[in-house]
Structure formats: C-alpha cells, structure tokens
Amino acid sequence: MQDDPEVAIGPDRSLLLVDDDEAFLKRLARAMEKRGFEVVTAGSVAAGRAAAGAHPPAFAVVDLRLEDGNGLDVVEALRARRPDCRIVVLTGYGAIATAVAAVKVGAVDYLSKPADANDVTNALLSRGEALPPPPENPMSADRVRWEHIQRVYEQCDRNVSETARRLSMHRRTLQRILAKRSPR
Predict the structure, then answer these.
(1) Rounded to an integer, what distance in angstroms lies between the CA atom of residue 28 and that of residue 64?
(2) What is 5-125's CATH superfamily?
(3) Domain Response regulatory spans what residues (predicted)?
(4) CATH 1.10.10.60 fits 141-179, yes or no
(5) Please, which pLDDT band fits residue 7 given cuts at 50, 70 and 90?
C-alpha cells in the first residue's frame, strides 16, 4: 500500500459498510474514515440495497450473514448499479463454498472475521493478482471452533438445547464449552 492513503484510494472515496453487528460496524467505520474513506453504514440487507441504489459507492464491505438475509444480495445490487465497485465480503464462517459464491457474484476478496481495518483496507485497495500475505496472527483452530459455536448459540437465541442439536453435540459438552473463556 502507498504512503498517502488518498492517492491509493483515488478521487472517489465512497465506502459502504454493511454489517448487523452494530459495535463492529461503528468501530470499522471510524477506522476507515481515519484512512480517508467517506463512509456510509447499513445494518441490514434492505438498508444496504437502499444505500447501493441511492449512491453506489466505489468501495463496499459487506457481511455475508445478516439478520434479514444474505449479504450476497447487497453485492449483486452493488454490481448492478456500479460494476467497478470494489467489494470485500466479511464473514464469521470461513468456508470455501461461500468464498467462491462471493467471488462469483462480484466480490474482489473474502475475509474471515474478526478482520481489522488494515486487512479490510489492504483487500479493498489491492490491485495485483498476487495473493495477499497471510495474517501475522491467524486464529487458532480452537478459536475458530469457539467462534462458530458462539455464533450458532446466538442465532438460537442463547438456547443451549437447540444449539447442541444443531451442532450435533451433547448438551453438557456444549455447556462446558460455553462456560470457558475463549481460546487464543
């Protein structure tokens, strides 16, 4: 990345952030504004599609799973309104199938959460065909598993029995995992 962020970003610095995690969305918006982007935020598929239709941005960061649907719907709306928009898809689920689907509908990159503002900026501004460098501190397999369990637990409205059923896990095993601190 270049030293002057405004040169790297270009004249159109509009950025749409779509994520239903309000705290993450605010934190990322502040960090991206500090990097020279003009940020608009949306917390749902409907709000993301509306923002894409009203003012198609030059850049976008879209969460894959939103409360009211799939973030790929926002990616498709962005592509329809502005084919040159550079879109990065974020998700708590790092699966090859969803990465392929994101790229097929027009995303330029796919990042697993938790991604920091530097990762997002590098993904948005990378122009080369070379793969980006691996993260310095990738999540451990235990941490990825824990994050997945937490996400399913939240989606099941913090119902231990339903979460255990969906994860094909014994309820007591799940309770022990949920009682522990997150792994590093």
Answers:
(1) 16
(2) Response regulator (3.40.50.2300)
(3) 14-128
(4) yes
(5) very low
